Amino acid sequence: MELSDSVVKGLQTLADPACFDLKSFSAFTEVAFDSLLSSTGNGVSGHPALKNIDQALLKHCHVAATTFILEAVKQNADKSTISSCLEDVKFDSEKVETFYTSYQINKRNLENLLSSIDRCPPHITDASWRLEYCIKNGHVHKVNQPSYLISFDVENGEREGTSSEVNFSCTLEQLQDLVGKLKDAAKSVERATQL
């Protein structure tokens, strides 16, 4: 597996016994897998066994570990591939075994998670807007500001015929910023198609 320098550095920090002993590594591994599979998890900063570790370092290691986990699942990596990659970044045999055990337990759920991700992002099929002028707010203070109510009809390319609406409100400055970003995106797509 090819990993970015940032991921390699994060994994090397995880391998360092001065930063993560086996107990904290086991807790970290459990939290890393849970964070991928659960939307209600507290993350790495909320676990009591990881409170003594620098939070910035902990977050970097979490990103590296979850990236490695997802890449391993995506490539359907076996034990020898995972062991080889982890040993290359200086994991000892106990940490490799701990990681691989968690990987085996959670692999099926992670495969289901990755397969549920849509291949085709939703696209905007129609847009409408309305100008709203706010005279007073809920506290009976004068506001006298216009705002724009924007509505996008969005269609999902995977499931034909399914559409939904995305509604939001913005000020004139926010609307101008949105239009500018959309124009930049359109130019980028146009340049990319010409290559």
Automatic annotation (TrEMBL):
Protein name: COMM domain-containing protein 3
PROSITE patterns: COMM (PS51269)
Membership in a protein family: Belongs to the COMM domain-containing protein 3 family.
Organism in which the protein naturally occurs: Astyanax mexicanus
GO biological process terms held by the UniProt record: sodium ion transport
Domain of life: Eukaryota
Domain COMM: 123-193
